[in-house]
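EI: anyone free to look at a 437-residue chain?
SC: sure, send it
EI:
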Amino acid sequence: MKKTGFLVATTAIGLVLGATQAQAAGYAIKETSATQLGQSFAGAGALKNDISAMWNNPATMAFMKGHHFAVSASYIIPSAKFKEGGSSTRQGSGLGGEAGVQAAVPALYAMWSIQDNMKLGLALTSPFGLETHYDENWRGRYNAIRTRLRSLNINPNFAYKVNDYVSLAMGVSFQYVDIDLTKKINNASVGGVGDARFKARGNDWGAGFNVGLLVKPWEGARLGLAYRSKITHGLNGDVTISGLNIGAGAGAAAIAAGANLAEGQADITAHLTTPESIDFSYAQDLGEAWTLLASVVWTRWNRFSDLDIRHKANGTSVGSPERQGWKNVWFFALVANWKVAQNWMLRAGAAYDQEPINDLHRTAKLPGNDRTWLSAGVDWNFADWGKIALTYTHIFMKDGKINKLDGVTPVFAAGDRLQGKVQNKVDIIGLQANFKF
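SC: here you go
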């Protein structure tokens, strides 16, 4: 596995790449702003006076004055526990323990006012990531043991205020992803005994773009529309198979060869495309104390059709590609913000987040399902130049049903089946500091 890309990314900006059980649809991490976390990300593309809205819609920068800087951190506390529901006995014993992995997800934002109507911004975020980690010898070890995806997105943006009612913006993204998959192989599928260990790793840099529009159609109203493009990654890395025990018969050797399974390490490639999205946001000030905000976001997850790891030398698949069959989804959010005093604001919001994974293709790697968010937060403007936000979100998630035949072993003859459900829930605590110069 080549580590150059990872070392450059982490050294250059000093951020830990986000990795946790994904808290938004698919493998997305929505926690790009602790302030917005407190309002379930409702109206994120139509906020005023918060540069962390830059990620959702960079056109929001155009109406801000001065220079701004913000640092955000969200601490994610997920829980994912497998409940048995008819797995085959060959799958071993144990339910995998707590598969959710706690993690802190940071973000940094900066904005420079070039002129009153022109702004330059920079967002450093981790918009995609997941990590599930089961016990080494649990009954679903042929489906997954450890699955981790980390990302870093470097996103410079430019915003232009056309007039007092309209602003436009555009940006580019340089995105790094790092993936690590660990599983077991049932040697019985190739005529042997015991388990082999399968570990694949890969990383890549990719590039994309985003555009945004903000309109003030009437007094106190802001309408935001933003598009963020897909980013295609050609992952390069290696796969290591250890402990492979192939039976003595010619048939067993032929099965192993047909699945391209061999003891040792080999270079691999794989493709991953992070999805494009369209964000529509609305904010309405109701006097000086209240603001109502809402968002509707569409994300194109159907690009993730299969997980296919291939040998770099000859292009053949390592085992059988795993069908994903994800669908496109919607995110809906609504919030009310109340300015209770000159320097204090309270937030309370809710959201419904559709999951692109269906019951037919769900695996233990990513056992998510539809989510309902409940959020709250408080902002304290401690000075004209500074603000601190403390926020909290609880995510209710439907159980993720799993019924997979031998999800890791590339050969299905062994008949191992993981069947049951994963019970999920998430708590998130956010802290953000904004500064104006």
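EI: The chain has one domain: 4-436.
SC: 👍
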